[in-house]
Every structure is written in structure tokens, then in C-alpha cells.
């Protein structure tokens, strides 16, 4: 039971490996309660709020950057001090390295305190666009938005000189702009309208660095950290000529807003809402679009769905064709899901009729 199975990246290959967890080292400061969370992988449960959220983020990247991002959600949470700190340029005397802040397995091995622990390794292995999701561990004190075990999704995107030369801006500005656009688009995809703001910050591994905050329950809540990757990290992975962005989302914080979950401790509860399976109810809607139909119309569609009674809705374009007369049709699939119960087909039908009506009026399209 002290064995953990996970994926290991070797060059372009990903293999299954296992780690035996040593617990009798004198420097080990991992309590049983934390140890018990290893291997639970809430983010890999498709019906758990964290799994649902992970998949919704994947959808965003698949739609906006088709076939671009490699995805990892099963890299080993036990990493070396080198991976967790040195490779992302955390100074030798930084407080985050202390036994007070980080869980040590032994003096050279820790439970990763961020998914950034895999950045350098994946870059070295040749990955240029990737999403890496996993459980991370910190000796933080507990409140409604902090827990010592939580989940992060790291994203990295590398650019080549061609990418920024064409844009007429310098490499760093190009990466910073692309990063903010990507994350603002993601927030729009997940939440529709939500109040948010960018805050300048500091990370040893990015410059410039930013945090995104979302207004939730009368307060600003930090949901992600990001920035333009320090050139030293790229250089060490043999990418001197490139520039990159990196971000890291706090999945619990995003899920708290998305699903209106009042307390971070609930993610670990055995409460029905977190364990039982309330499948989504899918409804398709096709319409002929006009020239005036733009990407903005999709946003309008999402915003419209946002105004419905609180439930998780998700829209995806599943078909797009133009007939001989030059008319273009779009088909959207809407997933309706309640966190409280299974939805009845009839109630969703009623809702879907209302949505159709509003889509016709607001988007000025002809429903099929
Ligand atoms: C980091 O972990 C950086 N590695 C992020 C990063 C990656 C920056 C790549 C630049 C490039 P930070 O410690 O701020 O940053 O944590 C990131 C997010 O994790 C926070 O925004 C927050 O959403 C979440 N988070 C941090 N601590 C906790 C906690 N105790 N409980 C729940 N969520 C947390
Ligand atoms: Mg932070």
C-alpha cells in the first residue's frame, strides 16, 4: 500500500511506473492525513467537480488550439528537490523550501508543491505545448480557500522566432499578450461573464509575472499565476531561440466559483454531490447562420445560457458545413448538468425551447 502508480515521461514515450514510498526517513514530515491523499487523484474522476472542470478546460484548448497541447494528468507527485525548486530557479534560501512549508519524503525528495515541478523536464523531453494536471501539497493552514492538498493545472506554450517576428512586437510582449488572451478566453469559456482583474506579481521562473483574480462572494480571489518563462529555463532545455509562456490554475478555486462550492474542504467529502454520478443531459441545436454571425455570437450563446437557473452548462460546436447554395449551418451541443440531482428530460426540453426562442431572437439566425 506504500506503492504509487503513475506515468513517467521518457523522451517522447510515456510509460507506467511505480514508486515505493519511504516513510521512515528522519526528515520525513508527512502526516498520515496527507499521506492518505496520495494517489486519490480527484482530478481524474470524470464525475467529480475537479474532473469535470479539467475536461471543460481541455475542451477549451481542443477547440481553440486543435491538436496542439499534449496532456498529462498522471505524473508522479513525488519529485526531487531539484525538480520542485532548482529547475524552476527557486533560490536556495527561499522560504518555500523549508520543512515548515513543504512536505519532505527525505532530504532530497518532496511532495511537489506545484505542477511547475514538471516544466523543465517536459521541455527537455521536447514538449512545446502541454497541460499538466495534478495534486500538489503545501503545509498551508486551512480555511475556506486553502487546503494542504489541492490541484493545479500547468500550461506551457513555446513560440519560435517566426511567431513574434510576424507580429511586429518583441518576443516577450508577444508571449505576454498571447498568454493573457488565452487565459481571458478560458475564463470566458468557463464562466461567461465574470468580474476579473490582472495583478502584477513575482515568480522566480517567469518575468513579467501576473495573477488573475476573480470577484467571488464580495472578495477578490486569486485563481492563477502565470508569466513569460525565464529565458534561463528555456536555455537549459536547449531552446535558446524560443520564448514561452506558462500558467498554473488552482483548480479548486475555479471550481468554487463555477459550481458555487462554499468551502474547499468539501472537495474531499464523501457527500453525494461529490461522489455520485449525475450525468449531463445533452441537447443539440442547429441553425443556418448569416454573414453577421461571428465568434462573438458563440459568446452571446454562452452568456444566454449563463442566465438560466444555476446549473453547469457547456456549449460545443459539433458540426459546421456549407451547402451548395452557400448557406452555412452550425450545430451546437449543449450539456446541461445539475450538481444536485439527475435532470429530467422534460424539464430540459422546456428549457431548450426557451433557449431556442432566445437564440433565434438575439442571434438572428434561422433554426433548423
Ligand atoms: C504557483 O504555484 C506557481 N507555480 C504558478 C505559476 C506557474 C506561475 C507557471 C507562473 C508560471 P501560487 O503559489 O500562486 O503559484 O499558486 C497558484 C495557484 O494555486 C493560486 O493562484 C491558487 O489558485 C492555488 N493555490 C495556492 N495555494 C493554495 C491552497 N493552499 N489551497 C488551494 N489552492 C491554492
Ligand atoms: Mg500566488
UniProtKB/TrEMBL annotation:
Query: Domain named FDX-ACB: which ranges?
Result: 276-368
Q: Does the keyword Transmembrane apply?
A: no
Q: Which UniProt keywords apply?
A: Aminoacyl-tRNA synthetase, ATP-binding, Ligase, Mitochondrion, Nucleotide-binding, Protein biosynthesis, Transit peptide
Q: Name one GO biological process term.
A: phenylalanyl-tRNA aminoacylation
Asked if Transit peptide is a keyword of the record, the answer is yes
Task: Tell me where in or outside the cell this protein is found.
Answer: Mitochondrion matrix
* Domain of life according to the entry: Eukaryota
Catalytic activity annotated for this protein?
Answer: tRNA(Phe) + L-phenylalanine + ATP = L-phenylalanyl-tRNA(Phe) + AMP + diphosphate + H(+)
Recall the GO molecular function terms of this protein's record.
ATP binding; phenylalanine-tRNA ligase activity; tRNA binding
Q: What is its EC number?
A: 6.1.1.20
Q: What do the Gene Ontology cellular component annotations say?
A: mitochondrial matrix
Which residue numbers delimit the Aminoacyl-transfer RNA synthetases class-II family profile domain? 134-279
> What's its job?
Is responsible for the charging of tRNA(Phe) with phenylalanine in mitochondrial translation.
Tell me which family the UniProt entry assigns to this protein.
Belongs to the class-II aminoacyl-tRNA synthetase family.
Protein name (database record): phenylalanine--tRNA ligase
Which organism does this sequence originate in? Answer: Solanum verrucosum
Parent-protein residues present = 78 to 445 of 445
Amino acid at each position: 500500500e506504500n506503492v504509487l502508480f503513475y506515468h513517467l515521461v521518457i523522451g517522447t514515450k510515456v510509460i507506467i511506473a511505480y514508486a515505493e514510498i519511504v516513510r521512515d526517513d528522519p526528515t520525513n514530515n508527512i502526516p498520515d492525513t496527507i499521506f492518505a491523499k496520495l494517489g486519490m487523484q480527484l482530478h481524474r474522476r470524470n464525475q467529480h467537480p475537479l474532473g469535470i472542470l479539467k475536461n471543460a478546460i481541455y475542451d477549451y484548448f481542443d477547440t481553440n488550439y486543435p491538436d496542439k497541447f499534449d496532456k498529462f494528468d498522471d505524473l508522479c507527485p513525488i519529485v526531487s528537490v531539484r525538480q520542485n525548486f532548482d529547475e524552476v530557479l527557486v533560490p536556495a534560501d527561499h522560504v518555500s523550501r523549508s520543512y515548515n512549508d513543504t512536505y519532505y519524503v527525505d532530504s532530497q525528495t518532496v511532495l511537489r508543491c506545484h505542477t511547475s515541478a514538471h516544466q523543465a523536464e517536459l521541455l527537455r523531453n521536447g514538449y512545446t505545448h502541454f497541460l499538466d494536471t495534478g495534486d500538489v501539497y503545501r503545509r498551508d493552514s486551512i480555511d475556506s480557500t486553502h487546503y494542504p492538498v489541492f490541484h493545479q493545472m500547468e500550461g506551457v506554450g513555446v513560440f519560435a522566432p517566426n511567431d513574434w517576428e510576424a507580429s511586429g512586437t518583441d518576443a516577450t510582449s508577444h508571449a505576454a499578450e498571447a498568454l493573457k488572451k488565452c487565459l481571458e478566453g478560458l475564463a470566458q469559456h468557463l464562466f461567461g461573464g465574470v468580474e476579473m482583474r490582472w495583478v502584477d506579481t513575482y515568480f522566480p521562473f517567469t518575468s513579467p509575472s501576473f495573477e488573475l483574480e476573480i470577484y467571488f462572494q464580495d472578495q477578490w480571489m486569486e485563481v492563477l499565476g502565470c508569466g513569460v518563462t525565464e529565458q534561463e529555463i528555456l536555455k537549459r532545455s536547449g531552446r535558446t531561440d524560443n520564448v514561452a509562456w506558462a500558467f498554473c490554475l488552482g483548480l479548486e478555486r475555479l471550481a468554487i466559483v463555477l459550481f458555487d462550492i462554499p468551502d474547499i474542504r468539501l472537495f474531499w467529502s464523501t457527500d453525494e454531490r461529490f461522489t455520485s454520478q449525475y450525468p449531463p443531459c445533452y441537447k443539440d441545436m442547429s441553425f443556418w447562420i448569416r454573414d453577421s454571425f461571428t465568434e462573438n455570437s458563440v459568446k452571446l450563446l454562452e452568456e444566454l445560457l449563463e442566465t438560466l437557473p444555476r446549473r453547469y452548462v457547456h456549449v460545443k460546436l459539433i458540426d459546421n458545413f456549407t451547402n451548395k447554395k452557400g448557406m452555412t449551418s452550425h450545430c451546437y451541443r449543449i450539456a446541461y448538468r445539475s450538481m444536485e440531482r439527475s435532470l429530467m428530460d422534460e424539464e430540459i426540453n422546456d428549457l431548450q425551447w426557451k433557449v431556442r426562442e432566445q437564440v433565434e431572437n438575439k442571434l438572428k439566425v434561422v433554426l433548423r
